[in-house]
Design goal:
Structural class: alpha/beta
Strand content: 15-25%
Largest sheet: 7 strands, parallel
CATH architecture: 3-Layer(aba) Sandwich
Number of strands: 7
Distance between the termini: 24 Å
Radius of gyration: 17 Å
CATH class: Alpha Beta
Number of domains: 1
Order of helices and strands: EHEHEHEHEHEHHE
Oligomer: single chain
Helix content: 40-55%
């Protein structure tokens, strides 16, 4: 086991979901203290129980990360307990597709903006303030290849992910030279249980595994990637 992150404090938003769980587990295996946000209490309990030897370095908070005030309170709690925030990874997101723009209900559009854009806004805005004071830190936002490949029937999803990439790109420009690094990753369909249930006839063997994407995220948060900043990396 590598110890690249031993003593580090990492926040993984959506840390009990399909990708988030893999990211959290990978950070724990490399020695980090990991704080996760979740919305599903039983899911959190199952994940915490499965962490076994690493459970002492795992904390969970039930937080709506689209709520800026709630996110600020969470960051304050992390600082009070850990005294630092070395990395923030946002794996929160949602998908809605299959409807033409004029057929889609506006509530769906708003939901995509909240999950895929506002979550990153609230989290990055709060985390970056801490990291600027520290003079170091890494932010990674999980967007999607749909940010660049705008397929029919996915207008709200593609728009929200494209906006998320643009927002993080601008943030990266704003913090250049401060010691804070900001990057996005652009996955295709990830091999998770919800995605398999949603597309039971798909060829799962062609989908990237959550564990493989987690390794890319850990790399981007590590000193090995200290020269990577303002990137949007397809995975």
């Amino acid at each position: 086991m590598s110890a690249r992150f031993e003593g580090s404090t990492v926040l993984v938003a959506g840390g009990t979901g399909g990708l988030g769980r893999a990211v959290t587990s990978a950070f724990l295996e490399e020695g980090a203290n990991v704080v996760v946000t979740y919305r599903n209490q039983p899911e959190w309990e199952r994940f915490k129980n499965s962490a076994s030897a690493n459970a002492s370095r795992l904390q969970g908070h039930e937080v709506d990360v689209t709520d800026e005030a709630a996110v600020n309170q969470l960051i304050e709690k992390v600082l009070l307990k850990q005294g630092r925030l070395d990395a923030m990874v946002n794996t929160v997101g949602g998908y809605a597709g299959g409807l033409k723009l004029w057929e889609m209900e506006t509530i769906v559009f708003d939901r995509m903006l909240n999950l895929n854009l506002r979550s990153g806004y609230a989290l990055s805005r709060s985390a970056v303030r801490v990291m600027l004071k520290q003079g170091r830190g890494a932010i990674v936002n999980v967007a999607s290849k749909a940010a660049l490949d705008h397929a029919a029937g996915a207008a709200a999803y593609a728009a929200s992910k494209a906006a998320a990439v643009a927002m993080l790109d601008s943030l990266a420009a704003e913090v250049t030279g401060t010691g804070v690094r900001v990057n996005s990753i652009l996955p295709s369909i990830i091999d998770t249980e919800p995605n398999r249930k949603a597309m039971p006839k798909a060829d799962f063997t062609k989908w990237p595994k959550a564990e493989d994407i987690a390794r890319v995220i850990l790399f981007l948060c590590s000193e090995d990637a200290k020269v990577i900043h303002g990137a949007a990396i397809p995975v």
